[in-house]
Design brief:
Elements: H1 9-13, H2 24-31, E1 62-68, E2 74-81
Antiparallel strand pairs: 1-2
Length: 83
């Protein structure tokens, strides 16, 4: 899937509350180091203990944050929606 913001990522950044207050130059600087990654439904993005060195912005869909409890059952902590 191609990014709907390809070529004008700074416009997509303006839709995200934490980036709205930035100047156009600041948004463009950030857009130069951004990339899109698409995940399939149910695909694990990362798990506890993984090193993660990126800021992730969800542009569409939902992410389920969960963990495995001591009895081996999935415990849903939160569901995050785009934005």
């Amino acid at each position: 899937m191609k990014c709907s913001c390809e070529g004008h990522a700074h416009e997509c950044l303006q839709r995200v509350p934490i980036f709205k207050h930035l100047s156009l130059a600041e948004q463009q600087s950030i857009s130069e180091i951004t990339f899109e990654k698409t995940y399939k439904k149910g695909e694990m993005i990362y798990q506890a203990g993984d090193e993660f060195h990126h800021l992730m912005v969800l542009s569409q869909g939902k992410i389920k944050l969960s963990r495995i409890s001591f009895n081996g059952k999935e415990q849903i902590m939160r569901v995050v929606e785009a934005g």
